[in-house]
Amino acid sequence: MAKKAENKKETFKSIHRYVQMSARKIRPYADLVRGEAAERAIAILSCYPSRGAKLVRQAIYTAVKNAADRITMGKTTSLGILDIRIDGGPMSKRFRPKSRGASSVYYKRTSHITVIIGGN
After folding, report:
1. Which end of the chain is more exposed for a tag (fewer CB within 10 A), N or C?
2. The dihedral of CA 21, 25, 28, 31: what is its sign?
3. Which of 77, 75, 88 lies closest to 19, judged by CA?
4. Closest CA to 39 of 78, 73, 83, 86
């Protein structure tokens, strides 16, 4: 018996790791464009001056360019965002001086941005 050729849609991925910003500040911009077309998501995020929006926009743009490199026909206009995740990365402990010679800990948080795009 011959196996049937499965019609799998190709997906393309971009991962931006160790971003020097907390995931909590980036997630609202990921929620804003989740499920949109890739070109429209880039246009939406260009209107926001926030650093978090810029980071998400760059990750989406990189995923589109990865798709353009791999697709032979060059049709990247029909790509949509299938999945976008903002995960927390490693944290660095830092110390801040307090009164009477004491100190308190604060964390320098990082995050990972994962974007998966594919055909609609």
Report:
1. N
2. positive
3. 88
4. 78
**Within 10 A of 118 (CB to CB), how many other CB atoms are there?**
19
Helix H or strand E encompassing 52? helix 51-70
- Give the span between the Cα atoms of 93 and 75, in whole angstroms: 46
Buried residues in 12-45 as b, exposed as e (16+ CB within 10 A): bbbebeebebbbebbbebbeebeebbbbebbebb
| Amino acid occupying residue 47 | C
pLDDT of residue 5: 46
Which residue ranges form the domains of the chain, and what is each CATH number? 11-119 (3.90.470.10)
The sheet with strand 111-119 has its strands ordered as: 11-19, 111-119, 79-88
